[in-house]
Specification:
Length: 412
């Protein structure tokens, strides 16, 4: 057994009203949208202040060695709260989390090994930024019964909100809501709007029992690709999920939206159907990846994956569409955290390792195979030992061998 962090996504149904018939405070859509806007406003205002101060340093001939810390951002937030009274409407921890995210963004930027971009302003049109986070302090986030006896989520300062989830998730959240039960703890909740639907994502700390390995133990090297989702070192392949129907519908309703006036009835109808098929695509893909990665982890004792530079791949116009649709990074992340949960060895091989060009038998490097321009070469013969290689299987074997060298063991 080990303690792990899990994320539980719960669908919530905020109301148009601030109070119900029993006089209880309930979470309204306006309050959620207000908190989302305040989260974005604080982030943008603090970033604008920092950018202005750095510009002043350069103009006056000083060297730009400004280091962004939590204490410096606390001063800016205090100034903003004095100037803008509407910031008090937001939950206190959500205001603090906004500036913590900004500090984290600067720390990642200053770490050159991460190669993160300089923080940018959060745009209102960016649908991925419609979120805010509330920390659980003194059990202010919990599941409780309302006056009618129905279970609802209690969000700090926002009130009660209806929710819908599985029996397993509900059981975990009820345990986390009990202050006497230390097996499950709710750390924080992220409220987000995705495709005009509202969700609460709970970060809980709970005890996880690792799965028992079924059958013989396997050591797997995994080569992530575009034409196929993944190829294993034992020659097995995972095909990409067929999402043609969903993509056709999404493109259809995107065209309809572009042909109608914004906020007209026909535009809203097309937008609703567009969001519906977007949800179907994402849910179908997540379900597919969850089932596959669980099966992989249950039947492996060691996994090696090459840390591919997916962002660089997306610059290729022939690959970008498939990469955006299939999201291979999501697949890799699921394998990584499930391996850590179940105490299975997991190694990320360097992205600069020539897994495709190296012969898995004699280790001779064939430079004629590497590069995006040579992706059409699916089979090749080693010029030194004459071994015939399948491009993807050979890469997976090399990834496994390199991963085992990193941890200092050998193939079984």
């Amino acid at each position: 057994m080990k303690i792990v962090n899990k994320y539980l996504e719960v669908r919530i149904y905020p109301s148009q009203m601030d109070k119900n018939d029993n006089g209880e405070k309930i979470t309204s859509i306006n309050e959620i949208e207000s908190n989302i806007g305040i989260y974005r406003f604080i982030y943008n205002m603090e970033l604008a202040f920092i950018n202005y101060f750095r510009q002043l340093l350069k103009q006056n001939g000083y060297e730009d060695k400004l280091w962004i810390t939590q204490s410096s951002c606390d001063v800016i937030l205090k100034m903003l709260r004095q100037e803008y009274a509407f910031l008090e409407k937001a939950e206190s921890s959500s205001r603090q989390q906004s500036q913590k995210d900004l500090v984290t963004a600067f720390k990642r930027y200053f770490k050159h090994d991460l190669k993160s971009h300089y923080p940018v302003l959060k745009k209102r049109k960016n649908t991925q930024k419609f979120t805010f986070r509330i920390m659980n302090n003194n059990n202010n986030i919990r599941i409780q019964k309302d006056k009618n006896g129905y279970y609802k989520i209690k969000l700090a300062k926002l009130g009660l909100v209806k929710f819908k989830t599985s029996k397993e998730y509900k059981k975990l959240l009820l345990k986390g809501s009990n202050p006497n039960d230390e097996s499950v703890k709710i750390k924080h909740v992220v409220v987000k709007r995705v495709n005009d639907k509202y969700y609460a994502v709970f970060n809980i700390e709970c005890i996880h029992v690792p799965v028992k390995i079924i059958g013989p133990k396997q050591q797997l090297g995994i080569d992530i690709g575009c034409s196929k989702l993944a190829v294993f070192s034992n020659s097995k392949e995972i095909p990409n999920l067929n999402l043609e129907k969903e993509t056709e519908k999404i493109i259809q309703y995107q065209k309809m939206m572009s042909h109608h006036k914004k906020d007209s009835n026909r535009y809203k109808k097309a937008k609703k159907l567009y969001h519906k098929w977007m949800r179907k695509l994402v849910n179908k893909r997540n379900d597919y990846y969850d089932k596959i990665t669980t099966c992989i982890v249950e039947n492996a004792c060691f996994i090696a994956v090459q840390n591919e530079n997916i962002i660089a791949w997306k610059h290729n116009k022939f690959l970008s569409r498939k990469l955006q649709l299939n999201a291979p990074r999501n697949f890799m992340d699921k394998i990584e955290y499930k391996s850590q949960w179940n105490n299975i060895g997991f190694v990320k091989v360097s992205k600069n390792f020539p897994s495709t060009q190296t012969c898995s038998k004699c280790r001779k490097i064939n430079s004629n195979v590497g590069g995006i321009g040579n992706l059409g070469i699916r089979d090749w013969i080693c010029p030194k030992c004459g071994t015939h290689h399948n491009r993807d299987v050979n890469a997976a074997i090399n990834i496994l061998n390199n991963g085992l060298e990193i941890v200092g063991t050998t193939m079984q």
